[in-house]
Amino acid sequence: MQEKAYKVLALQEGISNREAKELIDRACVFLKGKKITLARALVDEKSQFIIKKTQNPQVIFEDKKILAINKPHSFVSENLEKQFKAKLLNRLDKETSGVILLCKEENFRQMCIEEFKKHRVYKSYIAILNGILAQEIQINEPLLTIKTKKGALSKISKEGFEAKSVISPLMIEGKKTLAKIIIQTGRTHQIRVHTAFIKHGIIGDEKYAKIRAERMYLHSYELGILDYFFKANLDEDFNAFGFEIKNLDFKAI
Fold first, then answer.
1. Pairing of the two strands 97-103 and 218-225
2. Do the bridges between strand 58-62 and strand 66-71 make them parallel or antiparallel, or are there none, so unpaired?
3. What is the pLDDT of residue 149?
4. What does the alpha-carbon distance between residue 207 and residue 215 come to, in Å, rounded to a whole number?
5. Which secondary-structure segment (H or E) carries 2?
6. Is 93 one of the annotated active-site residues of the chain?
7. 167-180 burial by CB neighbour count: b if 16+ within 10 A, else e?
8. Where does residue 120 rank: exposed (0-12), middle (13-18), buried (19+ CB within 10 A)?
9. CA–CA separation, 178 and 252 (whole Å)
10. Cα separation of 233 and 192, whole Å?
11. How far is CA 5 from CA 37, 71, 75, 180, 246, in A?
């Protein structure tokens, strides 16, 4: 017989239905090697799920004005506001890990928002890309974002807003490239769309690159704003595919 995935998971783990739904929504639940994406998906009631543990949000820096967090993947940005009792300054996709900022003072937050609007914020990311990228590439392709019932969807369009990305290879293993990506603008899903555009999509980006993996290998690595500069170390997931990140100096090869 078949039953809804979250109910089977709740029975398996001895947790509430709500907790089971949250685990599935956070993309932490796998069945036969495949990620379960719908809590209400029908599965065999004897199914045995595997749950991938994720880290808790880690505080990188805190003072009277600002709080910098290393957000784990599969964690919703908005939930940080409740946890740390401060207002979000920037957001990351649920699937993206790394530096995210919260402000404690509203006046300071408005100052920071202006910095973002005027593109005076330094932002770099680390990603594992599909294929071999042998040299730095600069992408200047405008993006148009459309809101749909399934969330925001961005595409390259002459009617879109300016979007600039610089992608530099760090390490190559097999047919995968560990890359550092600096974005000079901050459009919705910019990195995901630009990397897919050059046929080097991010591993785990099912929306644009159509590549399945245990997670999306995109990490907000550095963020500099006003007199602040933050860096969020990569987690061990990025050792996948043969990469050794522990002592890696993230400078372009």
1. parallel
2. antiparallel
3. 78
4. 12
5. strand 2-4
6. yes
7. bbbbbbeeebbbbb
8. exposed
9. 10
10. 20
11. 10, 27, 20, 37, 37
**DSSP type of residue 184:** S
Reduce the DSSP state of residue 50 to 3 states and report it: strand
pLDDT the model gives residue 253: 42
Distance CA(243)–CA(170), nearest Å, equals 10
Beta strands in 94-189 (DSSP E): 97-103, 122-130, 137-140, 143-148, 151-156, 164-173, 176-183
Which pLDDT does position 247 carry in this prediction? 55
Q: What are phi and psi of 162, to 5 degrees?
A: -55, 135
According to DSSP, the β-strands at 176-183 and 218-225 are unpaired
Contact between residue 17 and residue 7 where contact means Cβ atoms under 8 Å apart: yes
Given 44, 93, 205, 227, the catalytic residue: 93
With contact defined as beta carbons under 8 Å apart, do 247 and 147 qualify?
A: no
Q: Calculate the CA dihedral of residues 230, 73, 239, 36 and round it to 10 degrees.
A: -170
Give the pLDDT of residue 250: 58
Q: pLDDT by residue for the chain (253 residues), tens digit each? A: 888 888 878 888 888 888 888 777 777 788 877 777 778 888 888 888 887 777 789 999 999 999 999 999 888 899 899 999 999 999 999 899 999 999 999 999 999 999 999 999 999 999 999 999 999 999 999 999 998 877 889 999 999 999 999 999 999 998 999 999 999 888 999 999 999 999 999 999 999 999 988 899 999 999 999 999 999 999 888 988 888 876 555 554 4
Other beta carbons within 10 Å of 84: 16
